Amino acid sequence: MQADRPVNLPQPPPAEAGLLAEIAAGLATSSDLNQLVARFLDRIVHLAGAQAGTVRLLSDAGDELQLVSTLGLPEALCGLGAAVDRHCGHCGAAVDGQEIVWATDLSTCSDRTGSDYFGDRGRCLLAVPLQHRGRTLGIYNLFFAGAKEPSPEIRAILRSIGELLGLALNNSRLEQQRLHTTVLLITHDLG
């Protein structure tokens, strides 16, 4: 009988592991999800080798994706599309399919906004769902100049980041609900 050998699971490189650890620590210390996202979007864009990034969260009604954070997005686009239909283009495909979407054709986005986004500097898009327990709560997008898709290792890390941010979003919403219930109870007791 042979003794069980330890299984060597692939580990992310130290820089990527550090980013995951920082995001996890941020979950415990930040009560403002928008601040947490803004704080790490730059690092996520850099990690992936992207030129820009955005974060969109599903509205409370679940019918729209609302823009909550951008980095490197052309100024003209920051106001455009602040909220889009949850089924819109590549973003909608990532939300509906609960999978990372790699897109090499941004013509749908360009047609909707009337902008070519980044011209030659933004030809491709990666849409990563923000998920918690099988439920998609939003997405983050990364825009790339070239058509070279991020490696499977980087995609796995980006998915983990999406899950951590999904957890943060879920916790934030639960806290908002708890506070709302507390206010209702106090108001009822005072009335």
Keywords, separated by commas or semicolons:
alpha+beta; six-stranded antiparallel beta sheet; globular
Account of the protein in words:
This protein is of the alpha+beta class and 191 residues long. The chain has helices at 14-29, 33-48, 75-78, 89-97, 107-113, 152-190; strands spanning 52-58, 64-71, 83-85, 101-103, 124-132, 135-144. The chain has a six-stranded antiparallel β-sheet, with helices on both faces. Strand 1 (52-58) and strand 2 form a beta hairpin. Helix 1 (14-29) packs antiparallel against helix 2 (33-48) and helix 2 (33-48) packs antiparallel against helix 6.
Order of strands, main sheet, comes to: 3-2-1-6-5-4
Biggest pleated-sheet summary: 6 strands, antiparallel
Overall strand count: 6
Structural class based on helices, strands and sheet pairing: alpha+beta
Number of helical runs? 6
Strand content: 15-25%
Helical residue percent band: 40-55%
| SSE ordering | HHEEHEHEHEEH
Low-pLDDT runs of 5+ residues are: none
Which overall shape is indicated by the principal axes computed on the Cα atoms?
globular
- Rg, nearest Å: 19 Å
Straight-line N-to-C gap: 74 Å
Average pLDDT number: 80
In short:
The chain has 191 residues and is of the alpha+beta class. The chain contains 6 helices and 6 strands; from the N terminus they run ααββαβαβαββα. It has a 6-stranded antiparallel beta sheet with strand order 3-2-1-6-5-4, with helices on both faces.
